[in-house]
Amino acid sequence: MKSLIVVLVFTLFSCASGQSCSSGNPCQLDATYTPAAGYQCIVHASETICTCPIGFELNRPCRPCTRTNPADNICKNGTGRLIMCLDTVDFGSTYACLCNDPRTNQEAVTLDPNCDLSVTETSSMPTTPSLNCQNGGVPANGFCNCPSGSVGPFCGTLDNSKLCDRIICKNSGACAIRKKAAGYESVCLCRAGYSGEACELTGTAGFCSSTSCQNNGACREEVIGATRNAYCHCQAGYSGTKCEIRHFTCTKPGKFSDSNMSDQGDYFECTPLGAGFRIEQKSCPDGLRFNTLSGLCTY
């Protein structure tokens, strides 16, 4: 998915607000996310209210683990054990808490929001790599997990109207569908001062300089009208306006979710290299999220 910066973005938001629940499915309700499970779509005045068991969101789907304010996510880290909150149906609910078990120093899954590991959960949904998924679909849990813009049991049908399904643009950005040379693509329309494929980069006014970015980050300038901003594109594992924060370090081989970009499906792959590890930042197909337990990209 590409990014596009716009200044008059609020016009786009007002058009997207208050969608009809009967057309477009703005709350992304389906056979899993049902009114009986606490998921509803309500139009009030100019707003679309999407409910979930722990609250509601305005003009976007409500899910227990991807709230607009992360502090509202159902899984809490009061015990210091929480690794990640998972939007998944693999454990008999619509969420699960991935926690560190201090007894074994291993990952464990529970439905207790406070990581009480007296009862842990085991997924009964096997992966099925023999499925012939198309258009970047990922076989898991007995079916094909289709990227945004593809539908059908094997993701074989392209549907441009769904290119923005499950796309989350950060910093109040908005997803839009744009025509390209061949077909269409989804783009995040970023508010002024933000950039990146998901509007995840925060700019600094002015020109790039030798001190703009730390830890080998690359500086790129963007000019809109009379405004010039410098943006730091960080090395894998680093974040912050100037790449000053190291938020992930490889300590063992494997694949690990990027806590800063988990809602974008980003993850790290760590492979042995000499006495340490080589780190690569990778991304799931648009609209899919990295599942820490299965190591696959799923809904």
List keywords for this structure.
mainly beta; Laminin; 25 strands
Structural write-up:
This protein is an all-beta fold and 299 residues long. Among the domains are: 40-110, no CATH class; 166-202, Laminin; 206-246, Laminin (Ribbon); 248-298, no CATH class. Helix content is 2%, strand content 36%. It contains one helix and 25 strands. The chain has one helix spanning 10-16, and strands spanning 2-5, 40-44, 47-52, 55-58, 82-86, 96-101, 106-110, 138-140, 143-145, 150-151, 157-158, 174-179, 184-190, 194-195, 201-202, 204-205, 218-224, 227-233, 238-239, 245-246, 254-257, 266-273, 276-283, 289-291, 296-298. Strands 1-13-12 form a three-stranded mixed sheet, with no helix packed on it. The protein has a three-stranded antiparallel sheet with strand order 2-3-4, with no helix packed on it. The longest helix is centred in the first third of the chain and has 7 residues, at 10-16. Residues 5-18 and 124-129 have low confidence and may be disordered.
